[in-house]
Write a structure and sequence with these properties.
Elements (H helix, E strand, L loop, with lengths): L1 E5 L3 H17 L3 E6 L14 E4 L9 H18 L3 E5 L1 H7 L7 E5 L11 H17 L5 E4 L2 H9 L8 E3 L22 E5 L8 H11 L4 E5 L18 E4 L4 H7 L2 E4 L8 H8 L4 E4 L14 E4 L4 H13 L1 H19 L1 H16 L5
Parallel strand pairs: 1-2, 1-4, 2-3, 4-5, 5-6, 6-7, 8-9, 8-11, 9-10, 11-12, 12-13
Length: 362
């Protein structure tokens, strides 16, 4: 079997789809990464994955540039002649639908900030995205969603045929790799948040919660400041230890006692999967994508979106109760292994691939 993965960034596939791609390679599948050349383009070969470049102009809204990109993608797709073309995220999902491939699959990893805010620009772009999906999903043999909320939204709005819609939670995580070796032994409990510094990640709520609990725990934050993003937040890190961009996330999670993500909306956050796999109790929002990883009261707590007081209250419960932290952490590990382990997820993807190749699709 030959499967080509299409994305708008080599880093996107490398950071979020590599576990699936590696597992497929280990099962004898010939795997291609169709991406523009970026900082990790040459890294795929180390995992037996063949990276093939297509040309594009990032950030351009010019329709002529979009047409050129579609043509470039189509040329690459024709040359590879894969059994299946599988695209991820909005732009590749749209562009991939115009390729000549017979067996095409879309994965909607999340809907993004335009589906969070209701300002005029967000509404207009949301309408365009929905209109394009209504057209392009007709080409797709299957449309995979990573959380049930997004799936239901698309089906109810008539953007995708319900017979094509499939739920596969997350892109999976290697739970053998993401495993905690020791319980943390901090003098004060360490609370950790990992995310880009964006308003819709709940940065403000996290900082306000830290202000309330500053005498009871240490609060750490790891993540890049995305200065080109309209939702970039400029915080006062007074009560939070800001670590900036870090490549040693596993090491940071190992050291923390509690993991927090007060995001407004996600696909399924990889950081939550990493924290769960490493046996951490989690406090996150009862938001799309986040609630897929946490069962309230079992492996952590769900709190309302944009409610820093509720966030602080639930963090405090875990700060004050070490036994509960450890119990919920153990439950996080169990949930990660049973629901999100890469082998579980890849098996579901393989079932979809086989259905598509055998013509069992709408």
């Amino acid at each position: 079997m030959k499967i080509a993965f299409l994305s708008h960034l080599d880093l996107n596939l490398y950071l979020f789809r590599l576990p699936i791609m590696k597992e497929l390679v280990s099962r004898g599948v010939e795997v291609y990464a169709i991406v523009p050349r970026g900082e990790v383009f040459d890294e795929f070969k180390h995992y037996g994955i063949k990276a093939v470049e297509y040309k594009t102009i990032r950030g351009s809204l010019n329709p002529l540039n979009a047409i050129k990109t579609i043509k470039n993608i189509n040329e690459v797709v024709k040359n590879i002649n894969s059994d299946i073309l599988h695209s991820f995220t909005h732009q590749p999902n749209i562009y991939g639908a115009f390729s000549d491939t017979k067996n095409y699959i879309q994965t909607i990893t999340g809907l993004g900030s335009f589906f969070i805010y209701n300002d005029l620009k967000s509404k207009k772009i949301r309408k365009v995205i929905e209109s394009l999906y209504k057209i392009t999903s007709k080409k797709a043999k299957k449309v995979i969603f990573q959380n049930s909320d997004d799936l239901n939204y698309f089906v109810e709005k008539g953007l995708v045929n319900s017979k094509k819609a499939v739920l596969i939670k997350s892109s999976g995580i290697d739970t053998k790799e993401w495993v905690s070796k020791n319980r943390p032994k901090n003098k004060k409990p360490v609370v950790l948040m990992v995310a880009r510094v964006l308003k819709d990640k709940g940065v403000e709520e996290y900082i306000k919660a830290a202000e309330i609990l500053k005498d009871k725990a240490e609060f750490w934050y790891a993540g890049d400041i995305d200065r080109g993003n309209k939702n970039t937040f400029k915080p006062d890190w007074k009560n939070v230890k800001y670590l900036g961009f870090r490549s040693d996330i596993k090491n940071l999670i190992e050291k923390c006692d509690i993991f927090v993500l007060p995001s407004y909306r996600e696909g399924i956050p990889r950081t939550l999967l990493e924290a769960a796999s490493m046996s951490k109790p989690i406090v996150t929002t009862d938001a799309v994508g986040c609630r897929e990883v946490v069962d309230d009261g079992f492996n952590g707590f769900l709190v309302p979106i944009k409610d820093h007081k509720s966030l602080a209250k639930k963090i405090e419960v875990l700060i004050d109760d070490k036994n509960l932290r450890e119990k919920m952490g153990d439950n996080s590990r169990k949930k990660a292994v049973s629901e999100f382990d890469i082998k579980v997820v890849v098996s579901k993807y393989l079932e979809i691939y086989k259905e598509v190749l055998n013509g069992v699709s709408s």
